[in-house]
Amino acid sequence: MDGQGFLLLEGVLTPDEIEHYRRQALDLAEKERADGTAVLHTDDLGQHVRWLVNKGEEFERLLTHPTVTPVFEYLLGDDYTLSTLTSNIISPGAAAGGCHVDGPLGAMPEPLPEQPMAANSLWLLDDFTPENGGTRFVPGSHLRRRKPTAETVSDPDEQPLSAPKGSVFIFNGAMWHAAGANTTDEARCCLICFCCRSFLKPMFDFANHLHDDVRERMTPQLRRLYGLDSQPRGPDVPAPRGD
Ligand SMILES: O=C(O)CCC(=O)C(=O)O
Q1: What is the pTM of this model?
Q2: Closest CA relative to residue 136, chosen from 94, 192, 175
Q3: Within-domain flag for 173
Q4: How far is the centre of ligand 1, averaged over its atoms, from the C-alpha of 222 (Å)?
Q5: Residue 5 pLDDT
Q6: 139-163 burial, b for 16+ CB within 10 Å, e for fewer?
Q7: Is 193 in the pocket of ligand 1 (CB under 6 A)?
Q8: Residue 108 lies in a domain
């Protein structure tokens, strides 16, 4: 992780979980296309389903997964928060995505901070291959402490991710990466759990937009992950007067 910027953890999801999450992601994507709330990208051949925390209790398991959370803690400290929980579906014919660093790093001046600020995890619901849109990434590029420019289409050190479904590809958000082109006739699907240090602004405002049932059942760990323990303070209120 320190030198290359990533870890590949195989066999994290069971076959039943893979099937269930893939079905859920595809069903939600279809529903959102039908009701006009779909978030499409890559000439409408890519689709994100965002706010998964409000779209099924089963997605909470990803946030507290015992195999993956120690890696986030290693990178971001044990008070890190969730930035987004999303799925990314890359349909047949989709072109390669643009090479980038994640979230707040894209808005930071260079040189980027030496310490990790954000970390991403892709939960593979299909085997990823160079042909079906498997993520392209540049090992070690987090050490450059630079951002790819808008013109960076590919990098000489770039590699395609080949890994079996059920794996989690977890990486420093400063490592250059992008979705690949899908030249097969099957969609490629993954879940994305992206986290950041507790003092940074997450991509989505979980603290204020969780559904009531999600808020009611949250454990102390989930409360922290949703950012409720790291909010800016409100106005001071008068101290109670003792007589
Ligand atoms: O779905 C992928 O392969 C890449 C996703 C990505 O680029 C991201 O989450 O920042």
Answers
A1: 0.96
A2: 175
A3: yes
A4: 24
A5: 98
A6: bebbbbeebbeeeeeebeebebbeb
A7: no
A8: yes
